[in-house]
Structure prediction request, 642 residues.
Amino acid sequence: MAVYTEVGDADLEDMLKEYDLGAVLSFKGIAEGVENSNFLLRTEAGTFILTLYEKRVAEADLPFFLGLMEHLAERGIRCPLPVKARDGRALRRVAGRPAAIISFLEGVWVRRPQPQHCAALGRALAEMHEAGRDFPRRRANALARDGWGPLFELSRARADTVEPGLEALVAAELAYLLTAWPSGLPEGVIHADLFPDNVFFLKNRLSGLIDFYFACNDLLAYDLAVCLNAWCFEPDNSFNVTKGQALMQAYQAVRPLAADERAALPVLARGAALRFLLTRLYDWLTVPTGALVTPKDPREYLRKLRFHQKVASAADYGLIE
Amino acid sequence: MAVYTEVGDADLEDMLKEYDLGAVLSFKGIAEGVENSNFLLRTEAGTFILTLYEKRVAEADLPFFLGLMEHLAERGIRCPLPVKARDGRALRRVAGRPAAIISFLEGVWVRRPQPQHCAALGRALAEMHEAGRDFPRRRANALARDGWGPLFELSRARADTVEPGLEALVAAELAYLLTAWPSGLPEGVIHADLFPDNVFFLKNRLSGLIDFYFACNDLLAYDLAVCLNAWCFEPDNSFNVTKGQALMQAYQAVRPLAADERAALPVLARGAALRFLLTRLYDWLTVPTGALVTPKDPREYLRKLRFHQKVASAADYGLIE
Prediction:
C-alpha cells in the first residue's frame, strides 16, 4: 500500500490539460500496489487510475506493459486500458516520474479465494495466454531462473537470521532447479504476478485482471504455477487440492496443457515458490525504517516450497490425466 | 496514509447485509488519513467511505463525531453524512473495529493553498462554528492546553536529539502559555484539525470539510489559530500575510471576532503551533520500524512557533481593525 510520490495541484492540472477528460472531481491516493504510486482520479469523463511508475519499474519496459494492456483489451480480456492524451500517447511524465492514466475496473479482489474463484481465474489466465500470442513486443523475465542466483546472493549472508537452515535449503534448491528446469515448453506472454489482489470479481464473476507490471515472455505453464502457489494454499499453508483442480480444469478447458507441461508442473511450482521466497526475503531484510510498505513474511513461501519438494506428480495438485 | 485493518470478504458482506446499498462494485483502501483505516466503497447505490476506527480514536467519542457530522450536514455544512443501516444506527463493528459508512464528498484537497482558498476556508470555518452552536453533545479537547505538559513529558528526554535546545524552548513556552492563555472567550464546537487535506475544492470552490475525529468543544478562535498555522505559511515557513488576511476577513464576514478574541490571537496561535509541534515530536520519536505512515517533521511547527513568539498583535496576521 503506498503513495511514494506526491502529485501537486499544478502537476495534475498540467497533465490533464493534455487530455479531454473534463474537470477533476476527486483525486485520492490508493493504498494498494507495492511498486508504484496509484491515485483514483474521477473527472467529468469518468473514473480512472493515475499511476506514477516508481524506480522499481524500468522506464524502458513501459511501452511493453501499456501496449500489452491495450493489446489484451482489444482481444476481449478485461484489463485496464491506457487512456491516450490528445497527442495519441498514453505515457507521460508527472511530478518527475513516468506516468499513465488507465481506465478504472470495477470489482473487488477476494481476500479468501474459494474454488469457484480459482476456476474463474484458470479460465481468465488461459484466455490471457491465448490473447497474448500475437503481441509483437518482447520482454525477458527479469525474475526468471537465471536471475534467482544473483538475487539470492543479496540476502544469502543474512538468510539464516530469518529461518535457521534457510541458506543451505535455498542453495540446494537453486542447484536442483538449474538442472531440472524444463526446456522446450510453450512460451508466450505471462502475467507473472497474478495474485488474488490482481484479480477483480463482481458478484463472484471475474471482472478483470490488473497490474501487468511484471508481465514478460516466459513459459506459459510457469504462470499457472505462480497461481497454484498464490491461490490454492490455505492460511495454514496446507495445499487445497479442490482449488488446484478447479484452477487447472478451467485453464485446460481453454488451453489444454501438453504432456511435457503437465510433467513439469512440480518443478515449475518449486521455481515459482522460490522466486517469491527470494524477493520477499530480500524485501524482509532490506526494508528501511519508516517504509510505507510492510514486507511480507518470506517463510510463507518457504513452506510452500517444502510442499512442492514432496510432490510426486502434477496429480498431487489435482490435475486429472 | 494507511490501511491498518484488513477487511475480509465475509466482513464486508456481513456489514452490507445490514444496509440497503445493493451489491459491491469496488472496494479500495485509501492512502489518506493517519488515524483510521479508510476504504472507498462503491455499491449499486453510490459511492461511500468505509472508516474503521483505530485505537487512537476512543470508541466512546464516536457518537459525538458521527452525531456532529449529521448535525452539521442538516444545517447545510458540506461534510460527510453517516449512512444509517436498516436498524437506524450508523455505528457498527467490522473486522473487530468500530466502523461507519459515510457519504463520499467530491473534491480535491489543495496541496498549495492560494489566498482564494484561505478565504473560502475562513467562511466555511465560521459557518461551521455557527452551525455547531446548538449541537447538544459535548467532548473535551484531549489536546487542549492542559494536555500539552503530559504529552511533552513523553518526548522530553529525547527532544534535543531532534533540535538542540528544543527541550528548554518547549518548557519555557509551556510555562508562558499556562499564564497567558485567555479565559472567557466564546466557546463552541471546533474542528481542531482543519488542515488543507481535510478541505475539498471543486474548480476552486470549497466543496466540503472532512475528518471530524479531533472535533471537540473549545475556544472558537483557537480553531482559527490552527488554520492560520496550517494554511498561511509558505513551504519555507515564512508567514504569508495576504493569506492570513484572506482567511480572517472571510471568517469575520460570517462571525466577527470580539475584541478579546482578536487580542488573544497571537497567544492562541502559539498554543496551536505548540500542540502540533508536540504531537509531531512524539510521533517522530516513537514511530515504529515498518510503520505505514511517515511521520511529519516537528521542526516545521517549531519554526512557526518562533514566528508567533515575535508577533506583536493580531495585525501581524493581517487582521484589520
Remarks:
- Residues 259-286 of chain A form the longest helix (28 residues).
- The mean pLDDT of chain A is 93.
- Chain A touches chain B through 37 residues (CB under 8 Å).
- The beta strands of chain A are 24-29, 37-43, 46-52, 92-94, 97-103, 108-109, 187-190, 199-202, 205-209, 216-219.
